[in-house]
Write a structure and sequence with these properties.
Number of helices: 11
Order of helices and strands: HEHEHEHEEHEHEHEHEEHHEH
Number of strands: 11
Distance between the termini: 86 Å
Strand order of the largest sheet: 2-1-3-10-4-11
Radius of gyration: 25 Å
Shape: globular
């Protein structure tokens, strides 16, 4: 009969436990590797911080259809407006770190909220970029009653009527608000800010002539300009807009150096495996490069412009510095 000593038994148990711990470590590592290799294996949700319609929602729907076809998974657009975008941002920041809940981020919220608001339910470090997907130039649009047919005439007229000209925005801290303040600072004109909750309400009052000026993205005003209900004095990009070829750039209209673009980028919760972020970013890039995506974007007045996660971060840093300067100079406060 074999004699088993206490020392032998202890040694055997030690080796067994060591083996179990090693196996456990391997098993714990497997889900991340498997997730990166098989991602996506279930539906992806694009969380939009704006109501349906407009630049951000349009951008989400531009990427959702081709992304679904390329990945073989459903891509759901979920509109979560509220709290100046903070509802959607905090939802994604606190979501599982698996790449299946994706924020469709709007530059107006992503840049302005951390500058203007002391307490946010999310932090910039809570989100990691997947990539830029679209940008939109802005249009300097005025009501037909404004006695100006070009940008130089408008600036001269506004200087003759300091404080009497009203301009609309989509709300405090929005691109239309900060952009118009930059416009005011650069031209030396004095206009009164009238904030709205979104572009829909703002457009109605501009069309009615209650507010004279609105600097906003093409999807909001393009149809009204084309029908003659509004006058477009300039676009604020480097080139003319393909759907508004008759409208000069601000530089062409005599105001060099004034460029204003709104952008939309995708973000996921920080801590999402890097391989998953890279896979999603690559699929998004392929989706945005499809000819039909560009055709749909052009028709909607949006420019497809993919940037990698690293370059998206650089864009955010550049625009944050510019906006912070304008917000301080204009003494802009949050609601």
């Amino acid at each position: 009969m074999t004699h088993i000593t206490r020392r032998t038994l202890t040694h055997t148990w030690t080796r067994t436990l060591a083996g179990l711990f090693a196996l456990s470590a391997v098993c714990m590592a497997l889900p991340l590797s498997a997730q990166a290799d098989t991602y996506p294996s279930k539906p992806i949700t694009l969380v939009v911080p704006n109501p349906p319609g407009g630049l951000v929602d349009t951008s989400a729907r531009l990427v959702s259809d081709p992304l679904a076809r390329l990945t073989g998974q459903s891509v759901v657009v979920d509109n979560k407006p509220g709290g100046s975008g903070n509802l959607a941002y905090s939802l994604v920041a606190r979501s599982p770190k698996d790449g299946y809940t994706v924020l469709v981020s709007y530059s107006g919220y992503h840049i302005a909220n951390p500058i203007l608001m002391d307490k946010l339910p999310w932090d910039l470090k809570d989100l990691t970029p997947v990539g830029l997907i679209t940008v939109a130039t802005n249009v300097i649009a005025v009501h037909p009653s404004v006695p100006a047919n070009n940008l130089k005439e408008f600036i001269a007229w506004a200087k003759q009527n300091p404080g009497k000209v009203n301009y609309a925005s989509q709300g405090n801290g929005s691109v239309s608000h900060i952009g118009t303040e930059i416009f005011k600072q650069q031209t030396g004109i004095d206009m009164t800010h009238v904030p709205y909750k979104g572009s829909g309400q703002a457009i109605q009052d501009v069309l009615a002539g209650q507010v004279q000026v609105f600097i906003t993205t093409p999807p909001s005003v393009m149809g009204h300009v084309q029908s003659g209900k509004l006058k477009a004095l300039a676009v604020t990009g480097k080139t003319r807009h393909p759907q508004l070829p008759q409208v000069p750039t601000a530089a062409e209209a005599g105001l060099s150096g004034f460029e204003l673009e709104s952008w939309v980028a995708l973000y996921v919760a920080s801590g999402t495996p890097k391989d998953v972020v890279q896979k999603l970013s690559a699929d998004v890039k392929r989706s945005m490069e499809l000819p039909e995506t560009k055709q749909r974007a052009d028709a909607a007045g949006v420019e497809v412009r993919y940037l990698s996660p690293e370059n998206t971060t650089k864009l955010l840093e550049r625009d944050t510095a510019s906006w912070a300067k304008a917000i301080k100079a204009g003494n802009i406060k949050s609601d």
